[in-house]
Records
---
Amino acid sequence: EVQLVESGGGLVQPGRSLRLSCEASGFTFGDFDMHWVRQVPGKGLVWVAHISWNSFTISYADFARGRFTISRDNAQNSLYLQMNSLRPEDTAFYYCAKAEYDRRGYYFDWWGQGTLVTVSS
Amino acid sequence: SYVLTQSPSVSVAPGQTANISCGGHNFGGESVYWYQQRPGQAPILVVFNDNGRPSGIPERFSGSSSDNTATLTITGVEAGDEADYYCQVWDARRDQGVFGGGTKLTVL
């Protein structure tokens, strides 16, 4: 069965950095694009970033571009999100999600349980 | 950029039909995907490619879309269906995902 396990969340001061990890199992990780999605507690889902299976295509939400970096290590079955210059409004649960693509777009067929990032002094 | 609008809440009695709408966008030619998120849990995919269902999702869940509105329909609503539901599209021009604000389904 597909499993996605996020880690690396925690309490961090504004302006500092944090690196999230997502360990994948139960599928051939290197064959699939991956995404990060976040959710402020009690609020809605917000897409964060996308990386293609071979890391050739990367895209970000406007709020993430320039501060966040998505990467992956297919040999380690792992996805990462490096978050710099963190702001209180970045406080959220961060989910990694396995992507499928139909001819019209990406969707997320498996999700991790999320890791909570709290940005506060 | 796309903005998807969902009603904040929908309430239905058990056994009835819930229609959860997603609007504010011309869906012609695009796929709409739907997710269920129960309290304290991660989202799960319930409808893809407008009206496909992943294995394990009951036939009670179906999707449809017209020009400006996509709808998730849940027939024979059960207590376990109580959750937040989100629509999603992929903005291919900007290579970005877009979610609706979510609809809380309450089973009376």
---
Amino acid sequence: LAKTTQPISMDSYEGQEVNITCSHNNIATNDYITWYQQFPSQGPRFIIQGYKTKVTNEVASLFIPADRKSSTLSLPRVSLSDTAVYYCLVGAAGFDSNDYKLSFGAGTTVTVRA
Amino acid sequence: DTAVSQTPKYLVTQMGNDKSIKCEQNLGHDTMYWYKQDSKKFLKIMFSYNNKELIINETVPNRFSPKSPDKAHLNLHINSLELGDSAVYFCASSQDIGAAGELFFGEGSRLTVL
């Protein structure tokens, strides 16, 4: 059962805004949406988390529509160092027997070019 | 100080051998995880421990056996290694159980089975 769906890859240029959309049609009421970033040869690291509407931090913004069936990670003015794989993870607090809630998909490989 | 550390970072071994990967976290978290990342970047949960108790044990062969001597350590032992076990294994920790909490990942241990 596929929990989330993201584009496999996206290309961009320095200074542009990158928007990555994640589909999660089966999101549950208690689920949060969390995005992670992974550089080559490193573990994923937390970027941003939201439940509904919009969340912004110093790194990114997260837009979540009212039905919560998708979410969009927005990276403003990307640089070469933003080249990475971006994962969205949907799940709730607490133990859940559905393992996919703790498994990530293949993520979106974002390549930023000069 | 590295929050989540894994050793070894690289491991090359022959089929049929037994190997272990160690993980330690100094964040004071109650929950630790093992993930497997394949060549297509899928990051799949294998095990989760909360306060030294196994709470998630996904469809992983019995050759994989986790051990948590205390809350700060979660080791992974693999018996009779097979070619398909080649992957990057990530240890992670979080304060609370579940996907809503921020996961802190180690740098990964790249296992190559020849």
---
Amino acid sequence: SQKIEQNSEALNIQEGKTATLTCNYTNYSPAYLQWYRQDPGRGPVFLLLIRENEKEKRKERLKVTFDTTLKQSLFHITASQPADSATYLCALKGDRSGYALNFGKGTSLLVTP
Amino acid sequence: DTEVTQTPKHLVMGMTNKKSLKCEQHMGHRAMYWYKQKAKKPPELMFVYSYEKLSINESVPSRFSPECPNSSLLNLHLHALQPEDSALYLCASSPGQGDYNEQFFGPGTRLTVL
């Protein structure tokens, strides 16, 4: 069966450090992978999409890598700030038609001053 | 306008009530989605509409009935729900064409079934 594993349920880091979140998947052959941020009681917000032929993508303090051989994506937040505290979700398109996504369970990031 | 709106924000209903959740977007997106999210769990897909036609129903119980009156609106009609249906219901939209489709989510409706 298809699985998306975000293997840290919670990650606590100090302000200014780099946070690294992991997303591993099995039984997918994804053309792309997406990362979302979700704050408590709110809908997810799209952050980044990385295509299968891209090794790395950056947006401001965010960096995503995608290794289709390892079946893994890493999500980095550099110079982290308390405002970065949230749950981060990894998402892949499933086998169904259309653009429906399957989400990992998410990693809860807490950045402390 | 890059926003997906959902009403109401909160809803409390009894098991015999009939209520509806509403979702609206004006980004010209042709794919719209309903997700259900329980606490500390990821969003779970319920329904997908593509070009106003239901394209995916993830074996959702018939007490949930989706409707897409036009390309900007998505409704979820609720009837005879169970307490375990209490959750955050999220609507999302995406362009519905092209190779890659990021999804835009609304703020959700917090549903409590008594």
